[in-house]
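Workshop exercise sheet. Pairs work together: one partner reads the sequence aloud, the other fills in the structure field after running the prediction. Swap roles for the next sheet.
Pair: D.N. / O.F.
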Amino acid sequence: MRKNSIVLSTIFVTSLLSLTVKADNITHFKGSDTMAGIMTDAIFASGLNNEIVYEGGGSGLGETALLNGEQGIAPMSRAMKTDVVNALKVKGVEAVGHVVALDGIGIFVNSSNTVSGIDLATLKSVYTCATTKWEKIPGSTKTGDIKAFRRNDASGTTDTFKNLVGVKEFGSCVQVLAETSDIAEKTATEADAIGYSGATAKKEGNSSLSVALNATSKYVPLNVNTVRSFEYPLARKLYIYEVKGNKSPNSSEEKLLNSYLLDRSFLDPIVQDHEFYTID
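Structure field:
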């Protein structure tokens, strides 16, 4: 896992420094929590840390901020919802999404857990609370209650997980955690835990399960090759969305940052540093 806990502290410190230096002209913007590390490093590497503060919070918050005209770009760990695209058109602006990296949603368990793989139907059963005991999971030698954890509803990871796994509503047994680092910590320290998150939730004490489309399909591990080929069933694209048009709210600072974010020679090393995958 790449410095998720440090990222939050960095964002906080950055906010304090920026507010001190340029209190009336700071651009605050929201977006994918999964991409918070990438964004924080990109802001510093571009020299814009006194002008821009990245607040993260989830892809849904970034999407809403674009719709409300509060910001002009937003990192998102899923595609923008069609109704938001249409609502922006009504406001006279166009949403343009740029794929800047690839990721796989990892299914994390404690390293002591002998389960090595899970299929989508079983995963759905766990997260709808139809299955609540480890002894009911194929390949498990564990017994007892499953402690299932998930990201919150503002998270693009949650939206993607629900869509790919087929979960309409989470069961009442599933506990909500706000951030990627929380999923990492729970699965690394609690023997009965299972949680989904971006691949950066990998840390000492947890492991990611291979995932199969169904009970008769092969289990596919999460790695660069299976994500790039989309063989891994929970592979996804990471986006930078910008709005264009006469009524676009892009600030000059955001436009400059966006030019850096869309420059692969600039962003690819940062993407790799945070253990995401470049497009090719």
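Discussion prompt: The CA atoms of residues 259 and 266 lie 10 Å apart. What would you look at next?
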